[in-house]
Amino acid sequence: MPTKIPTEVMTKSINIVDIIATSIVVLLVILVCVALIVSIRKLSKDQKKKAQNSMNVERKLDKIIALLEKKEIDK
């Protein structure tokens, strides 16, 4: 005859498993949120750097154009 496990012990072990599973799911959700936030910040910084680099290139091109125009006037 198999021994019966008291229902109190079964519910406690099920509750512990439920708590562990819920904790894992919550941690995964938090981890995904943090990863999204970090990647969005990184993309934002990269866009700012690209915009700054673009402005620097435009300034340099303006200087080159001005020097070429000045050279043509001096001829």
Q: What tags apply to this protein structure?
A:
single chain; 75 residues; mainly alpha; 0% strand; rod-shaped
What are the SSEs and their pairings?
Elements: H1 7-74
N- and C-termini, Cα separation: 112 Å
Secondary-structure-based class equals mainly alpha
Kindly state the mean pLDDT as a whole number? Answer: 87
Order of H and E elements: H
Radius of gyration: 33 Å
Helix fraction, binned, reads over 70%
- The general outline is rod-shaped
Largest sheet: none
* Percent in strands: under 5%
Low-confidence stretches: none
Can you count the beta strands? 0
Number of helices: 1
Describe this structure in words.
There is one protein chain. This protein is mainly alpha-helical and 75 residues long. The chain is built from 1 helix and no strands. The protein has one helix spanning 7-74. The protein is rod-shaped, with a radius of gyration of 33 Å.
Can I get a quick summary?
With 75 residues, the protein is mainly α. 91% of the residues lie in helices and 0% in strands.
